Amino acid sequence: MTEIIVVTSGKGGVGKTTTAASIACGIARRGKRVAVIDFDIGLRNLDLIMGCERRVVYDFVNVIHGDCTLKQALIRDKRLENLSVLAASQTRDKDALTAEGVQRVLDELAAEGFDYVLCDSPAGIEKGAHLAMYFADRAIVVVNPEVSSVRDSDRILGLLASKTLRAEKGNGGVREHLLLTRYSPRRVASGEMMSVGDVKEILGLDVVGVIPESTDVLSASNAGTPVILNDDSIVSHAYQDAVARLLGETLPLRFTEEPRKGIFARLFGS
Amino acid sequence: MRLIDLFRRAPPSAQVAKERLRIIVAQERSARGGGPDYLPLLRRELLAVVHKYVNVDPDAIHINLDRAEGHEVLELSVALPTRAAGPR
């Protein structure tokens, strides 16, 4: 069975694409067959984060329009052979995506034997975001511990509960997970930033991961290597934990406390 | 005393953020609420009733709840099959 996971947030710039790329790599690293699709039509970016921008020949909209086969459009990752990327189109045509077209592509990926399909949603609540979530079984809601991001993600939760196939069919709805990014334990400790517990309480979601703020994220996107593949980074470990939880493991949260000063902090803190 | 005043001056900004969000999220949830909770069940039960008489496709039923000022409109549409598929 193929599981469809949407990575969504409402607000832009919170780390959806970074998260989609890293989670996709993380699941693929565990031996599952994974496809990750960029739904941000017109503003293609997943290919850059994945480091495959020069290998994009055909895109998602080409497949939907029948300009090429799905196999021709899927870009096989050079690092992980069971991971494929489907790039977004650069077209300005807002109606390029259709529900039927998206469904056809998802069905074909299922028939091809993919275990997981990750849908990287565009920001906002327009058509692209709607179609990215519509067929999802699960949702990773990416949130920064900051007021506008939390509020927007609550709007998204409302849409997940009403404007998705699972909600319409009434078969349990979409399973929702909270993933906090750009988390700064130091600022939480000083009362300048909402804590995991605060955001969890406001949104009423289970936490699948907390990703600490780190310069490693920018370095990774500069290089086109999803940050989860940088095993020296705590960001990678935080994403690996999130992947484990997504796949059903129970792990305590890490990197949510400010490292204590002293030799231990220097050894294990960063 | 002065030290305590320093701590009392203002609550930490994260606390303020949390309070503001708690209020706005509750408000926005109640504004959009109602629909998602019972609509799927309503849809399923209506489908079962219709299905007793006509062999309709599970996807043929559409329910929509629209809110306007002061009232709500429950819109329901069932696409019936062509004659050939006929009554059961």
Describe the structure.
The complex is a heterodimer of chains A (270) and B (88). Chain A is 41% helix and 16% strand. With 270 residues, chain A is of the alpha/beta class. In chain A, strands 3-4-2-5-1-6-7-8 form an eight-stranded mixed sheet, sandwiched between helices. By secondary structure, chain B is an alpha+beta fold. Chain B has helices spanning 2-8, 13-32, 35-53; strands at 61-68, 71-78. Chain B starts with a helix and ends in a 10-residue tail after the last strand. In chain B, a hairpin with a 2-residue loop joins β1 and β2. The radius of gyration of chain B is 25 Å and the shape is rod-shaped. At the A-B interface, α7, α8 and α10 of A face α2 and α3 of B.
What is the mean pLDDT of chain B?
74
Structural class of chain B: alpha+beta
Whole-angstrom Rg of chain B: 25 Å
- Strand tally of chain B is 2
Keywords summarizing the entry:
heterodimer; A: 270 residues; alpha/beta; eight-stranded mixed beta sheet; 8 strands; globular; B: 88 residues; alpha+beta; two-stranded antiparallel ribbon; 2 strands; 52% helix
Brief overview, please?
The complex is a heterodimer of chains A (270) and B (88). Chain A has 270 residues and is of the alpha/beta class. Chain A has 13 helices and 8 strands.
SSE layout and pairing:
The complex is a heterodimer of chains A (270) and B (88).
Chain A: E1 3-8, H1 16-29, E2 34-38, H2 46-50, H3 60-65, H4 70-73, E3 75-76, E4 83-86, H5 99-111, E5 116-120, H6 127-134, E6 138-143, H7 147-160, H8 165-169, E7 175-183, H9 185-189, H10 196-203, E8 206-212, H11 216-223, H12 234-246, H13 263-269
Parallel strand pairs in A: 1-5, 1-6, 2-4, 2-5, 6-7, 7-8
Antiparallel strand pairs in A: 3-4
Helix pairs in contact in A: 1-12
Chain B: H1 2-8, H2 13-32, H3 35-53, E1 61-68, E2 71-78
Antiparallel strand pairs in B: 1-2
